[in-house]
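Tokenised fold entry reproduced for everyone:
>
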Amino acid sequence: MATASTETQSHELGIPTARLSTRRGLVEESRRALVGLALMVGDWITLCVALFVVWGIRVAIVPLFFPSLPSLYELSFYFRGLYFFAPWLVAIAAARLYVRHTDFWDEVRAVVRASTWGTLMAVVLSFGEHPEQSVSRILIATLWLVSLPALTLSRHGLKLVLASAGLWRRRILVVGVGDAAAAIVRGLHAEVALGYDPVGFVVDLEASPDGALEGLPVLGSYYDLPSLLETLDVRDVIVAIPEVGREELTRVVGLCEGRVDSVRVVPDTVGFAVTEVDTETIGGHLLISMRSNLARPTNLIVKRFSDLLGATLLLAPAVPVLAVVALLIRMDSRGPAFFVQQRVGRHGRLFPCYKFRTMFLDADSRLEAHLAANTCAREEWLQYKKLKAHDPRVTRMGRYLRRLSFDELPQLLNVLRGEMSLVGPRPYIEHELAGHEDAFRTILLARPGITGLWQVSGRNRLTLVQRLRLDEYYVRNWSLWLDLQIALRTFGALARSDGAY
């Protein structure tokens, strides 16, 4: 373990070390240039394949159904007319997607924007230079649609390959050993394509510089940072000590500045769930704007319109499924096909929440007897308000419905009635509000949803407190993009039966 004084550190950073640092910097820049070039070539190949597929379908398949459509120019004309995809690559480079390390969903959003701008630039240039030649607008629009998933998936796959080869990796050191630091490292390990390789932790002067956290060693204290950054060849630092004072934080950041490419600081926002916050400076102080997006009337109108449109489109194909499932429930066990329960809606108003019945009619007595006879089940019920291994209340048909989440299909009617949303917080039972009034003050600003962050982040494996935190995050940071992201992730969660029981 390095324990160098300030004077010793200055001595260690002499000419030989500086030369070594310069060589490392050159190697790092060369590696980043190589990675950027690989990603750019991958994007170009992906766009070429997309154009070939779109053009081939338009030339070979579409005329079979619409023979009166005019013929297209040769494929080579579109390569030249679209400037060999230079506008796309320029837009992607302008978004810094060849050097920036970002998670999958942030990259999806950035690719959508960059590809849209690239398409618009290519169209404007092609029509401006060749006004006498008709570039197929339908083909360009189709190419744009195809490019969005194609670029996203190809870039993600290529990053995984580069990461496994050690090229798309950046060594990162975490300052702090608390909950925030542990959560940061778990997130970095979960996102392999993010390209960060945490090497260890650094603690404050009063803490013991021994032990490990999240499988990584505690390497030293704050004043070891200069020597650690040099010997470990770390390029990035995350300061995850949100509770630290200003003077100590300034000292830590100062020890890192000039020695790494970036220093990220986890702010002290305990109790708040925020992302993409607005910041401003007044009197030399940084102000962070905390917001609740679903408290804004305009956002509520937009969300309500998207709910009506989505529920209407989904209900038509769902009606036959609803009828078949209702019949199977009646055949499987005694009782009605539907279960109606009072849930807490927007502004705390109760509403009848519709679900398919998945339990026996005497579910309460079955649960009481099971908890009385099983201590582990009783502890599990107290923590999660769910039974994972065996729930004696659930019918045979109910187990299948819960595994597929088909028991929530009737809630489309709640969406049409204005009581629920397609995506939103969990529809809570009234007694669950007790003791969590502060969290529900934010959560109940929104309509509950059929799906939500709670469903794609572990669902019933989460404790009540964890669900509340996710729902607070959702309400504060709502956007149509977040709804789309959750909807897409829901399909994956359903396929895996993630937390469904």
Summary: The chain has a mean pLDDT of 83. The chain is about 55% helix and 10% strand.
